[in-house]
Specification:
By secondary structure, the chain is of the alpha+beta class. It has 14 helices and 13 strands.
Length: 514
Amino acid sequence: MGSMIKRLVGILLLSLFARASGTDCGKWFSSDCLADSDKRYDKGYTNDIKEQQSFWKQYEGYWINEFLQVNNPITGKDFTQPSFFNPNMPYTGIPYTLQRAFYNESIVGSRYYSNRVYIYPPADEIFCNQTIPEGFLNVIGNGQCGVNGYSEDAGIYGTSSYEKDGRIQFLRSTGKYGANANPNSNMTAVDELTFYFAGTIEPSGFVNVFTGTFLNNLTQISGTQSSFVQGLPNNPILNTQVFLMTKVTREEWLAAIEQEYESANVLPEDRIDVAGIQDCFSGDACLTEEEWCTADPECSSSPYQEPDGTLKAGPIVGIVLAGVVVVVALIVAYFDHKIRQLRKQARHDFARRVAQSVTLTPGSRQLSPEALAAEFKKIDQDKNGSISNEELWEFVSSGKLGEMTRPEFDALYAVMDADGNGTVDFLEFCAYMSLCKADFNEAKDRMSIRQVRASFVAPSEASRSSFAEQTAQRYSSRVSMKVPSNIVEEDDKEEEDEQNEDQDIEEKGSAGQE
């Protein structure tokens, strides 16, 4: 039995573990999904920048940025004077006075667009009269130093991140910021009022860092900005700025740009046409859809993929235990059924054997106390008042029943020995015979029919059945009992089977003597 249980449990476990590798997470029997506690794994969590962080809803729009103060921390001087420009050395200087900037910040779903225009007033006469160093210029574009101002565009483009934390990761900068990828640049909303920017322009190593906070009912942003170039000795800060951004309508924004062009005397050919451009000012430097989809969570594959779930230890143990219980219950039920069959067969065989041995009083089918006592004494060969295992085995093995199987006998004796002391006393014998009443009566009826048949000779084989029925009816009237005709028919078959069994036993005996 133990070996069978182990095999069945092994099969159960193999079937469980075979399914474990493909188990969905979040089920009652499997591990929790990472998406339940980590939004990065949640495919249903929004990639919309404004939905991830409400700060961006207020940040989106048109802004005019004024640089209130620019300082050089190395010299400690106000950085309002222009400086010479080297076209081969980016970020070396701007030959104009302090500029104003105009930002168009727009967010569409998971994508961020920042299109900006910087307008510089012309330099003063003092700067323009200075000797120009070799390789440098005192003007950019087509104008004259001290007469014309200048404008240039700039763009920053990015998407929401796979982190789904409201951060905007930059894909590219253009124009003034350089047409470069910015994989290490991002802008983060710290809370609903404050944001932080950190940008690196490769390969120059120019780094720009600033923070800003909403003021005046979300209509202004005040902040500071620091710039430096990586790789220079001690990474010196190039400048620090204090800025104030004011939010305006699109009409106000466009009007302010035109007014600034006129005020700075920027030549028409040096002006940026912003009226008809929405997505990108820089033409060929703008992102293609394929480039957007290298990082946009809406059209690219996230590195945060939900792994297959694993079966929980508790449910596994529960299922295994339940399986074991079911298997054991089936095995117990099977053996209980077999034991019941053995006991039934043993009771039937024992009743037949007693029916062969006992003598009933005329006109009676019931065992009297005297008959029971007499039968008990026949079996109790050593006359010690109890029947031993060996005595009962010898009794049931004798007669014309053939040998009872040992399992049947063990079942028989276990039931008869009610107190389990190893012997069967008279009370236990009588109690067991009361259980065998139906079997005993049936066996006795069959024997009575055979005895009647043996005393008569049937006229012919054709009338044998009718003759047997008439004889049985005559005999049953003597003992005040009615024998059903089906018993007569069944007895014919049983008598024939017993004759065959007797013949087999004789043949086996003859073979053994040879």
